[in-house]
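Q: Please design a sequence for this.
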């Protein structure tokens, strides 16, 4: 398990379809669902954590993040892609009728980068 992390802000969309709440981030291409906002937020946090830990353990963190549009600044700081850089990806993941009423949230994530 990593002991060093960098933090990054990612855009997250929260919306409801029928009786299900859904959270999605194009920055990681991760989504989750739940019956309530509280449940979807918890599930989404767990899904993001598992995703980031998995790509770290697999040694594919940089490749996966760079393929999603991330880039490095100052040699170490990871920056998530801006929404304007990936509107087609968002529209493929979220139908327009849902995207138009989705709440946009910025969420801070901890990305594993190494151990002591």
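A: Design:
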């Amino acid at each position: 398990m990593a002991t060093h992390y960098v933090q990054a802000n990612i855009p997250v969309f929260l919306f409801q379809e029928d009786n299900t709440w859904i959270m999605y981030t194009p920055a990681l291409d991760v989504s989750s669902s739940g019956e309530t906002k509280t449940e979807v937020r918890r599930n989404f946090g767990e899904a993001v954590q598992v995703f980031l830990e998995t790509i770290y353990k697999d040694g594919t963190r940089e490749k996966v993040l760079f393929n999603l549009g991330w880039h490095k600044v100052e040699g170490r700081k990871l920056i998530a892609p801006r929404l304007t850089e990936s509107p087609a990806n968002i529209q493929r993941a979220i139908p327009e009728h849902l995207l138009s009423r989705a709440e946009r949230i910025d969420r801070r994530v901890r990305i594993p980068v190494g151990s002591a």
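Q: Thanks. Anything notable?
A: Residues 4-114 form a domain with the Double Stranded RNA Binding Domain fold (CATH 3.30.160.250). The longest helix spans residues 37-57.
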